[in-house]
Amino acid sequence: MQTELVKIDREQMSHHIMKRAGEILQNGGLVAFPTETVYGLGADALNEEAAQKIYAAKGRPSDNPLIVHIADMEALGRIAESIPKEAKALAEAFWPGPLTMIFRKKECVPSGTTGGLSTVAVRMPSDEIARELIRQGGGYIAAPSANVSGRPSPTTAQHVYEDMKGRIPMILDGGPVRIGLESTIVDLTEEHPVILRPGYITLSMIRSITGEAEVDRGLIADNSTVRPKAPGMKYRHYAPRAELWIVEGPMERVVSYINEKCSAFPGTGIICTEETREYYPDGVVKSIGSRKDERSIASHLFAVLREFDGEHVERIYSESFDTQGLGQAIMNRLLKAAGHQKIDVSEK
Ligand code: AMP
Ligand code: MG
């Protein structure tokens, strides 16, 4: 299959191209497109056969459900069995935007879209290209991240092309995404909202709207006895080809530990920040952003993990990040990329 990579100007969207992309979706095909979080791989969510094509193109395990993207609130009422008042308040506060909510599903949502679950994950993205594509494509677009399963999520159309070339007919190129981490997922089928995947919308932002809210224990527990409720969170994900370790502790000790490893293993990869870059004289050093602006770190994380794949490094050491606020989402993705390999260099 030929994969068409088409540039779209967000300010002046070509109606002709958006209509053509919408037709591909309406005819059961796949289109990759930008959202404010990461690039998505879209299919008509209400067409089971179309949604199944996503699993094939990504090599995604069939028990890992898809998020349904909508462009207006009326669409939510047609796929969610009931909309709790917390959900309405969260939608009011954060939609359109990087928040996904889990509801009990209506009959019309095929179980092929929800990985066999009786619930459905729904998000209303803010990116204008995504919103127009949803409208042109029939209103309900299932769209996981547009990477091959297990690889870092794509934050540019070029990343999508690397993974999906020959597997899908069209990629809409809207330039680099704004946020760079996937949406926060909140389960609204329990008594209180539960965060199943941390993201740009933090626990304290959710609590400021709903009062009570928790983080799924399966995400916090270091031992893996508690299973995460979002099926996708149990898989190794975002993994670069090299082995990755996260080094924790006071910054000076972290830097000297990483430098020791670098002398022992020439060609070691290092993930650092603007603040520490100058302290690493050797190795393949990549700064991921500034600690003063966590958003810059979030937006570069996946691209940096992908870049290492082109560098022939066999081991990568990364500094660690604060686990509050947006840092919680950053550490969640980094730890998954590292298969949870952590090294603590604090003085015992
Ligand atoms: P992705 O689309 O790649 O960002 O992955 C979607 C994430 O949403 C995965 O971790 C899924 O397991 C999770 N998810 C989707 N639908 C549901 C659902 N109904 N219940 C729980 N988690 C879900
Ligand atoms: Mg994904």
Q: Describe it for me?
A:
The protein has 11 helices and 16 strands. With 348 residues, the protein is α/β, with parallel strands linked by helices. 32% of the residues lie in helices and 18% in strands. The strands form 2 sheets. It has an 11-stranded mixed β-sheet with strand order 1-8-2-3-7-4-6-5-9-10-11, sandwiched between helices. The chain has a 5-stranded parallel β-sheet with strand order 14-13-15-12-16, with helices on both faces. The chain has helices at residues 15-26, 48-58, 73-79, 85-94, 128-136, 157-164, 203-210, 217-220, 251-264, 294-309, 326-337, and strands spanning 4-7, 31-33, 40-44, 67-69, 99-104, 119-123, 141-142, 170-173, 184-187, 194-197, 214-215, 243-248, 269-272, 284-287, 315-319, 342-344. The chain starts with a strand and ends with a strand. The relative contact order is 0.14. The structure holds adenosine monophosphate and magnesium ion (MG). Adenosine monophosphate is lined by residues 64-65, 67, 102, 114, 117, 119-121, 144-145, 182, 185, 196-197, 229-233.
